[in-house]
Amino acid sequence: MAAEPRDGGFEKEKEEEEAAAERAELLRDRFRLSVISIANAEEGRDGISEPVVACIADLAFKYTEQLAKDVELFAQHAGRKSVNMEDVILSAHRNDHLAGLLRSFSQELKGKEPQTERKRKKSSKSDDKALAS
């Protein structure tokens, strides 16, 4: 029986990386177009050229990509598969003002969440006997 080539996994990994790069490029282009359209819609933009706006959009996108990687790593480090608000707040640890704003926003969101009733603890048979006495 002939052994299968071991580079099949490598090719699949390479294809996934290429697909991720294509998605990132598409997102970058959409982000750039959104920033340019917002800048064009703003009044008083007379002194900013479109290439400068595009450059700022690219920098903002790269920053956002790095931020996303950081919060994913924070979640992984905490043993979680998904990112939560604490990860986002932690990502702002070098900017006290931003961290404070994020904490306030988080508290505001928590205040708007519908209050759910806490589930009752299932009573044990010994608790039931004590109540019956």
UniProtKB/TrEMBL annotation:
Recorded GO molecular functions are: chromatin binding; DNA binding; protein heterodimerization activity
- Biological process annotations from GO: DNA repair; replication fork processing; resolution of meiotic recombination intermediates
Keyword DNA damage listed: yes
Q: Which UniProt keywords apply?
A: DNA damage, DNA repair, DNA-binding
Q: Name one GO cellular component term.
A: FANCM-MHF complex
Q: Note the SUPFAM superfamilies from the entry.
A: Histone-fold
Please give the coiled-coil regions recorded for this protein: none
Where are the residues of the annotated region Disordered?
1-21, 103-133
Q: Mind telling me which Pfam families this protein's record contains?
A: CENP-S
Keyword DNA damage on entry: yes
Stretches of Basic and acidic residues bias are at 1-13, 124-133
Q: Which family is this protein grouped under?
A: Belongs to the TAF9 family. CENP-S/MHF1 subfamily.
Q: What is this protein called?
A: Centromere protein S
